[in-house]
Specification:
By secondary structure, the protein is α/β, with parallel strands linked by helices. Helices cover about 50% and strands about 20% of the residues. A hairpin with a 3-residue loop joins strand 16 and strand 17. Helix 9 packs antiparallel against helix 10 and helix 11 packs parallel to helix 12. The two termini are about 95 Å apart. Its EC number is 2.7.13.3.
Amino acid sequence: MENPIINILMVDDRPENLQALEAVLGSSGYQLTKAYSGEEALKWLLKKEFAIILLDVQMPGLDGFETAKLIRARKKSKEIPIIFITALTQTQDYAISGYDAGAIDFLFKPFNPYILKSKIEGFVKIYETKWQLQMQNELLQKQSKQLDEAHSRLEQLVELRTQELRKTNETLQKEIEEKQHILQLAQANEAKYRLLVEDSPVAIILHELHKENWTFINETGMKMLGGLHVKDVLSRTLYTFVHPDEHEVVKQRIERALHGEKVEDNELKLVRLDGETILAAVTIIPFEYLGNPAVHIVARDITDMKKTEEYISQSEKLSVVGELAAGIAHEIRNPLTSLKGFTQLLEYKDDTLNPYIPIMLEEIDRINTIVSELLLLAKPNAGDFRKVKMTDLLQNVVILMNAQANLQNTEIKFHTLVGEEQDYIDGLENKLKQIFINLLKNAMEAMKTGGEINLNMMIEDNLLRIQFCDQGCGISEEDLAKIGQPFFTTKEKGTGLGLMVCKSIIDSHHGHMDIESEVGVGTTITLTFPLCDVYSEMMVDSNN
């Protein structure tokens, strides 16, 4: 056990007296603390624990006797030995006053250093003995507490073990009864499981790998493969129902399954008993059946689903054709108008009846009718509207336009303040994409020396707002008022149809377009669309 640190508090208002005490005691390894008044001594007692206090009697402010009484009045410090050091008379009354104040001993100046050290050593030994006894007492209490806790834990363990043995005995009795009950229910459960497998909406097949024929197939699988009875399927080999082009693929997948790999949702061409080829999503799961390696095959007929996907793809292609037709129609109608006008002018000015002019007018009208029919292909239909995620659409457009932007030393930046599931609107994705591409192209053409185009998306008042901000040449107020009018353009080779078509598409989506521009600074175009739920409420109100 290590010895405690010995702190000694020396209190004297004269620094030379404290230096004398420090010279006597400094070499003994004690921690010496100096205080120059009674008040400072009391402060030190609040900060540290002291083994002995050497206290001068005559001090300004609180004298030694008053300081000692205050030390004794405090519970934590009342047991600390106090040695008074004084140069006053050694009368008996004076000494009694010191002892009443709480002194243990007196030293009179000038004092003998040897006597001081001896007294201090005696009190230090008492302090160390007291400290060791206290430590031993605390250790004994701790060990006693540990023994009590160990004894308590031992009793708890014994009780717990006894309860466990009782429970084990009860559990064994219950297990015997349960096993007897399970044995009785096993056949019933097997029948229920078989019924569940039989009624499954997907084909379930069991194939033992050491056999050529299948071991089991449910009714769904039998019907999928064109069988009237289960034996129609089980009497044939696995590869009877696999398309010849897929034989090698199936062998490889079964080999992978034998190595413990689960082969999920692979598309396979299967041949029905009536010769029809179907497409199935097949999952092969390895397992053991009666100790033999086997595979559990789950198959879904996806022939109709694939046809539907192909139909959707074809519809999208038709939509693209419609857009192309609309563009061609716009370009054809302009020269048609001129041709018809001049032909009619020739008819009125020509005195003779020209037989070719009526034919030409008839054919021009026929072309105009065909053009009108082409325009119908691209006319937006509210019934074709779908939920469109605008963040994904804008990101795709930015990626699409980045190549052209890089060639023109232009950078397109997309910023969104819209949450992940809040950016849906009802619309036609291709038409919306047409708007965005057109606006980005216009912005790049306006920025002859390059720069930045910023796309900002946010939600305000339940409306989705998309801003296209460029650093181009800008548009004058006079031209800005004409923007969107048919055939008005500020470009040398423009047709004036671009923004007009964009506005038409935006209107069909119940949206709005605002244009702000400053010459030499740039242009900001803001598109506003109702969000999905807002759009739905508008449609309900209009129907009502």
